[in-house]
Amino acid sequence: MPKSKVTVIGAGNVGGTTAQRLAERDYADVVLVDIVEGLPQGKALDILESGPVLGFDSKVVGSNGYEESADSEVVVITSGSPRKPGMSRDDLLKTNQNIVQSVTEEVVKHSPEAILVMVANPLDAMCHVAMEVSGFPRQRVVGMAGILDTARYRTFIAQELQVSVRDVFALVLGGHGDTMVPLPSMATVGGVAITELMPQDRVEAIVNRTRNGGAEIVGLLQSGSAFYAPSAAAVEMVDAILLNQKRILPCAAYLQGEYGVEDLFVGVPLKLGASGIEEILELDLQNDELEELRNSAGAVRELVEVLHS
Description:
Layout: E1 4-9, H1 13-25, E2 28-33, H2 39-48, H3 51-54, E3 60-63, E4 74-77, H4 93-110, E5 115-118, H5 123-134, E6 141-143, H6 146-161, E7 168-169, E8 172-173, E9 181-182, E10 188-189, E11 192-193, H7 194-197, H8 200-211, H9 213-221, H10 228-242, E12 247-256, E13 262-273, E14 276-280, H11 287-307
Parallel strand pairs: 1-2, 1-4, 2-3, 4-5, 5-6
Antiparallel strand pairs: 7-10, 8-9, 10-11, 12-13, 13-14
């Protein structure tokens, strides 16, 4: 029985690490695409040669074109110019709009039935570009942001309370940027609300650190941005789709009235399975949280208006 096929576009740190993690899963063959000659081929060969040691048989191929990617079930789009210190996500907007547009056109040509997992920044706006260019239904374009932001939130909560991250449940909604909405009311450790386990000032400090989680890493690295956690988050989404896990995960989805938001990609909890987004869950948010979510949506709308200007 042939394996599933997943294509990762962009062979930088996020794309290369995503391809590696997918190959190690051993459930799909992986195609790594990048415009830089030799880069995807070299990384793909290096990953492939780790197979005998780690015990996986996935084929891994690198390419500068899209022929190898034909009939992929999932395409992860990481390509784009990376964020540099002092650069806002908005600065990236026009550059990455052009990149994502041309990439999506090629994907549609070669894999018209694929589900798109968007990782390129500014995330919510790039989801828009991909959906408009592809003409795909909203179920088949989904953005990776909430899982990463939630992972950061869970990490900081676990560190603060000195507990296993596996016992921390949390959600971050909204746009992937400074206006994201970590929900203290939904964050629990072993079922107990964090608001009962730590003082309000610590909760607020953790929320703020979560909002600036990407910038914190950019500042530390000096050149480049996070890639281990982003790639892990993208692969969790591919797992959910290819293995039809029907996971409830916070991802960027195109809302059509949910949470009072119209025609925008915003991070919300959704059910992810073989057909892509199978359901959008509407949580009963507190009034201030709902207001923050709508403010975050407003920030995304501003980006989308810049795209169309």
